[in-house]
From TrEMBL:
<dbReference type="Pfam" id="PF14530">
    <property type="entry name" value="DUF4439"/>
</dbReference>
<feature type="domain" description="DUF4439">
    <location>
        <begin position="259"/>
        <end position="381"/>
    </location>
</feature>
<feature type="region of interest" description="Disordered">
    <location>
        <begin position="198"/>
        <end position="249"/>
    </location>
</feature>
<dbReference type="InterPro" id="IPR029447">
    <property type="entry name" value="DUF4439"/>
</dbReference>
<feature type="compositionally biased region" description="Pro residues">
    <location>
        <begin position="207"/>
        <end position="216"/>
    </location>
</feature>
<dbReference type="InterPro" id="IPR009078">
    <property type="entry name" value="Ferritin-like_SF"/>
</dbReference>
<feature type="compositionally biased region" description="Low complexity">
    <location>
        <begin position="223"/>
        <end position="237"/>
    </location>
</feature>
<dbReference type="InterPro" id="IPR012347">
    <property type="entry name" value="Ferritin-like"/>
</dbReference>
<protein>
    <submittedName>
        <fullName>Ferritin-like domain-containing protein</fullName>
    </submittedName>
</protein>
Length: 387
């Protein structure tokens, strides 16, 4: 505005001043002295400049008001996760107020609402550009809405839907830290859905079933003469399933860290199983076998199994009797969940699915040993209410 208006104003001022100096300096009756006429010309020029300035401002005000900026892919993902968490929170609050709801169900619904609110805050909250306040158009920011009455079964469905979207977004988003956060939130939502479904007798999510991809050289398609249709069916799509995709972008050191963590957990639980009996022994034996198998699978995928680069050891240092088997198992599972969450944040988009599933599975396993569920499993920097 200043550049477009100032130049003409300066030209007008120069023209008026120049014409004033050409008027004869006589004091004839009815004629203004030259000096006074010059002052009048200057005042007129200044008035013209002010008018031009005001006119320029008027033109600017007539342009269309600014609109909402178009969100990019990352912002769309974030807003979707916020809307999902808001809906869950509102439904959980509504369901908790229904008369006759069992106290344990109310407690679970209250925790779900608290977790959802914490997740909304950590995701950045609802988007507000501030334009509605500036322009005064009174247009509210869109937000999730919940029905006036909701049942626990509705909350279970919303949790499952939200978790599914968060898992998919965590796998594909280009924002690594956001992927890590979404994977953690999905794990919390899935486990909350399972717990609420168990309390209310409704159908919950299927258990996490992580499958560590096998190395490409081992995963060669084999021609089975007796079942050619099955072989053709497997290759029909030409696209690998999520379980077939190995995490990309991980360093050799990071892969070795996975192998070592899983093998350490297996060894520690084997040792504790030998000292236990009954149900505790059975749990430790079963879980130790899972961790040993995963350590082997990761070593195979990394290409270090049976080589000098294999990080696995014959024995590991395990805490003594001052740490109970349950507490030790919690530490091991929580550590694995944190490790997998970290890897989600650094792995390449589109290759994170197995890491996301392992995060959820380790979280679930930790709760079976007594670990309280949080709003952000695998994210030790986040502090949330415990169950």
């Amino acid at each position: 505005m200043t550049f477009a208006v100032t130049v003409p104003a300066q030209v007008a001022l120069a023209d008026v001043a120049s014409s004033a100096t050409m008027i004869p300096s006589t004091n004839q009756p009815g004629r203004m002295p030259a000096t006074r006429r010059t002052r009048a010309g200057r005042k007129g020029a200044l008035a013209l400049a002010v008018a031009l300035l005001l006119g320029g401002c008027g033109v600017r005000l007539e342009t269309p008001p600014p609109g909402e900026p178009a969100p990019d892919a990352v912002e769309v993902v974030r807003r979707t996760a916020v809307a999902d968490a808001l809906l869950v929170s509102q439904q959980a609050d509504a369901a908790a107020l229904v008369a006759g709801t069992a106290p344990e169900v109310v407690a679970e619904l209250t925790q779900i609402s608290d977790f959802s609110d914490a997740q909304v805050a950590q995701l950045g909250g609802e988007y507000d550009s501030g334009l509605s306040d500036v322009l005064g158009d009174g247009t509210p920011t869109p937000s999730a809405s919940a029905p006036a009455v909701a049942a626990p079964a509705d909350v279970v469905v919303s949790l499952m839907d939200a978790a599914g979207r968060s898992r998919s977004a965590a796998d594909t988003t280009a924002d690594g830290p956001l992927a890590r956060l979404l994977a953690s939130i999905a794990a919390s939502q899935t486990l909350s859905a399972s717990r609420l479904a168990g309390l209310t007798g409704t159908e919950g999510p299927a258990p996490a079933d992580p499958v560590i991809p096998v190395p490409p050289e081992v995963d060669e398609p084999t021609a089975d003469a007796t079942e050619p249709e099955a072989a053709a069916s497997d290759a029909a799509s030409g696209e690998p399933t999520p379980a077939d995709v190995a995490p990309g972008g991980l360093s050799a050191e990071q892969l070795s860290g996975i192998v070592l963590a899983e093998d350490t957990a297996g060894y520690a639980l084997e040792l504790r199983a030998a000292l236990a009996d009954g149900a505790l022994r059975d749990m430790a034996v079963a879980r130790a076998a899972v961790h040993r198998a995963r350590a082997e699978a990761w070593a195979e995928l990394a290409g270090t199994a049976g080589t000098d680069q294999d990080p696995r050891r014959v024995a590991y240092v395990v805490p003594g009797a001052e740490v109970t088997t349950e507490a030790l198992a919690q530490q091991l599972e929580d550590g694995l969940a944190s490790g997998y969450a970290t890897l989600v944040g650094v792995a390449e988009p589109g290759t994170r699915r197995v890491l996301i599933t392992l995060l959820a599975e380790a979280t679930t396993a930790g709760t079976t040993w007594g670990t309280p569920l949080t709003a952000f499993p695998g994210l030790p920097e986040q502090v949330t209410p415990a169950a």
